[in-house]
Amino acid sequence: MSARDVSTAEELVARDARVIAGVERLRFFPLVAISGNGEMLVEPGGRELLDLSASWTAAGFGYGNPAIVAAIAAAAANAPGASILSGTHPDAVALAEELLELVPARVPGRPRRVYLGHAGTDANDVALRGCRHATGRPGVLAFERGYHGGFGSAQGVSGVHVDAGATADPGAVFLPYPDPYRPHTGDASTVVDDVLEQAAATLALGTTAAVIVEPLQSDGGLIVPPPRFLSGLRALSDEHGAYLIVDEVKVGLGRTGRTHAFEHAGILPDVVTLGKALGNGMPLSAAVGPAEVLDEPAASALMTTIGNPISCAAGRAVLEIVRAGGATRNAHARGAQLRGLLEEYARSERPGAEHVGDVRGLGLSLGVELVVGRDDRTPAAQLTAKAAYRAWELGAVVYPVRGNVLELTPALTISATAIDHAAAIVAQAIDDASAGAVSDAQIEPYRGW
Ligand SMILES: Cc1ncc(COP(=O)(O)O)c(C=O)c1O
């Protein structure tokens, strides 16, 4: 492995700080990359970093994926316009058709549409406003520590942002996302019933347009929904005439070991939103849902470059990979491998192991929750920030979510050898951080969330 070119990296970090807006920086260590390949990023000087985030899952099928690069290059060379606003082109129409094939219909035969957008944020925003318009109701039932976007209503129903000071959407009601490790009721066996009772009470008011939920709460702490939670929301939404929006932006398209994460719960949503890996790094998102939600008011969700041919070509190449199934199967197998290795570490006598409170997830969406000690579940947020920093020093990119959970979401194409390496670095980073290898001063400039 080559050495870091510290002078160039540090210079770039300093220039970045002078010119890039703080509102769009969420930094945990001085990451600088000059290129990427598969699950690896390359720093100035050539040091390789194993990216266990895949850019927050946006590069879900690997950097420089040859099939996707070829599709992008061909589309860019000969772009049939730049948008679908006032004309159409083959890749936009085909992408929408392919998404309708991939996302199962809740009610067979009922007309559906696809909104093509730039990011998870606008896909969720459009889904929310469409449900409000179609029902004439203002309310949205969302979840504490949920994440649906960084602007507009998608931000206003995101518990993560509201906790950090963003204005809550005036129609939003936030309920706890059932967390068996940290039960809000004090008893893991009652969390689902309690949340469903609260949801029933809110929905019974008849003012809720939509329930929006992550099928695995990611930025809120990698929380796998316990059985009966999503199916309970499905039943309650039906009973009270609210749409169920399932936000697959972060964990969809094979990441959990199934094509759609909602499949684990055996439900069918009314609206499904997709993003991040859909463009594998190109700006692309989608909302797939009933025509009555996504058609009206006509021409009311406009951005000049939506449905642009280059993003659409990337999306079609991604869907071809998804349909082939190998990446999804790999997510299942490599996820089980990584989880097994992390659990083995947690059971070991190594110095950091006593801080691993829980290892959880589905497929290649895994979380390692760090706590004060095996018998004390107090969140160890400072230790987590230091472990992420130390992992970067050791050669891996891993980000904390909800303060004390290391989120592991590598590319679905990752190899078994790279997973062994990933587990070794994460374990070493936790050991080192717990032994004091990273000072408070080192992480002080990185406020993260
Ligand atoms: C579940 C979920 N939905 C939506 C979004 C927003 O997507 P974007 O940042 O692409 O707008 C995110 C981003 O982290 C997410 O995790």
What does this structure look like?
The protein has 449 residues and is an alpha/beta fold. The protein has two domains: 6-64 and 326-443, Aspartate Aminotransferase, domain 1 (Alpha-Beta Complex); 68-324, Type I PLP-dependent aspartate aminotransferase-like (Major domain) (Aspartate Aminotransferase, domain 2, 3-Layer(aba) Sandwich). 38% of the residues lie in helices and 17% in strands. The protein has helices at 6-19, 66-77, 90-102, 120-135, 152-156, 159-163, 191-203, 229-240, 291-294, 309-324, 326-347, 381-394, 416-434, 440-443, and strands at 35-37, 40-42, 48-51, 112-117, 139-143, 172-175, 208-213, 243-247, 271-274, 285-290, 356-362, 365-373, 376-379, 396-397, 399-401, 405-408. The strands form three sheets. The chain has a seven-stranded mixed sheet, sandwiched between helices. Strands 11, 12, 13, 15 and 16 form a five-stranded antiparallel sheet that branches. Strands 1-2-3-14 form a four-stranded mixed sheet. A hairpin with a 2-residue loop joins β12 (365-373) and β13 (376-379). It binds pyridoxal-5'-phosphate. Pyridoxal-5'-phosphate is lined by residues 56, 119-121, 124, 147-150, 214, 218-219, 247, 249-250, 275-276.
